[in-house]
Amino acid sequence: MTTTIEKIQQQIAKNPILLYMKGSPKLPGCGFSAQAVQVLSACRERFSYVDVLTNLDIRTELPKFSNWPTFPQLWVNGELIGGCDIILEMYQSGELQSMIKKLQ
User: Fold this and answer.
1) What ranges make up the beta strands (E) of 1-104?
2) Which residue in 1, 3, 42, 96 has the fewest CB atoms around it within 10 Å?
3) Quick count: other Cβ atoms within 10 Å of Cβ 29?
4) pLDDT per residue over 38-85, tens digit each?
């Protein structure tokens, strides 16, 4: 049987842009997740997401795995980018867009 950590590793490996968030892009469960979705949508690139409100095992284990205590968490190309504030700062500086363009 797959452990939660293995499931997280597989999700990160399989999805070039992955957002662990509360809720879904259409119905975010918190303001920070909503902001992260807005920023990613503005980058005009498809991204995957995992709702940590319906995946309690991931909600519990991911902060230990990533060493990042809060949600949302953005992963690009297997690397943790950070949470809402970092995503916003990187978007405003243009760094996020160029990082996402390099994936293509």
Assistant:
1) 17-21, 48-51, 73-76, 79-82
2) 1
3) 17
4) 999 999 989 999 999 999 999 999 999 999 999 999 999 999 999 999
